[in-house]
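forwarding from the other thread:

> can someone predict this with uridine 5'-triphosphate?

sure thing
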Amino acid sequence: MTNPKPIRKAVFPVAGLGTRFLPATKAIPKELLPIVDKPLIQYAVDEAREAGIEQMIFVTGRGKTAIVEHFDIAYELETTMGERGKDMSVLDSSRFTPGDIITVRQQVPMGLGHAIWCARAIVGDEPFAILLPDEMMWGEPGCMKQMVDAYAETGGNLVSVLEVPREDVSSYGVIDPGAENGALTEVKGLVEKPPVDEAPSNKIVSGRYILQPEVMRILEDQEKGAGGEIQLTDAMAKMIGQQPFHAVTFEGRRFDCGSKLGFVEATLAIALEREDMGGDVREMAHRILGD
Ligand code: UTP
């Protein structure tokens, strides 16, 4: 396929309850928890922008308004910082062209598939990206850029995948892999949270998607699946065979920041890599570990 329609819109589902992070997430959305000094949602939005995506669609719910405010201009902050001669470049990446931050509501968190369906009117008849902000993808270029580049060749639908130890597959969506060509793998099937002995591979879907708008029509009639939720994986599985469907093996690291361990790992890994603090963090870690 040549010249598929460009990806201009990204959907960020942020209406979940974040129960694994209670009590931190009682009043603060999980997506605003910072890794060092940047909230999770900002890493995902930066990744989408790097991939050339212009419009960011947040699927929010009650108590999530602060996520949208994060992308507003903070007049008091800017005025005071300006008067005091402080460097305001730290605020640059959270500024947006008016109209490019769009929110829709998911009144009840009925699952990822349902959250995506809530964005149908804004997505319209265009292919679109999905980024789950609690999965942090760390690489250069970013994961979505790697996917958009692959999409320019394949068109159709794409998911990002990575390989995990077999015994871990039952917590994830898993692909049934077909022909492989470099980082690209044909997807022959998809299952959500399979038992280990029924999993078709150890390649798990990892929080980044490029989908054709037809998925919205499938989601409209989608029954509840694993965990009693409307699953995106089940809807995507129905598109296989109707449209091209590929997986891109992400070249980079993924941190599952929806879990406490993954969150701590991301914080440590990124702090260690930062030029402004990496050396100090390394020393501090040695001190704590007593070696
Ligand atoms: P998760 O299942 O990881 O998030 O969903 P959660 O439900 O908020 O977290 P726990 O399990 O209770 O700790 C992945 C992403 O999908 C969004 C979440 O906000 C998260 O970014 N989501 C999930 C929705 O927007 N709506 C839903 O109904 C479910």
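The first helix runs from residue 40 to 50. thats all i got for now
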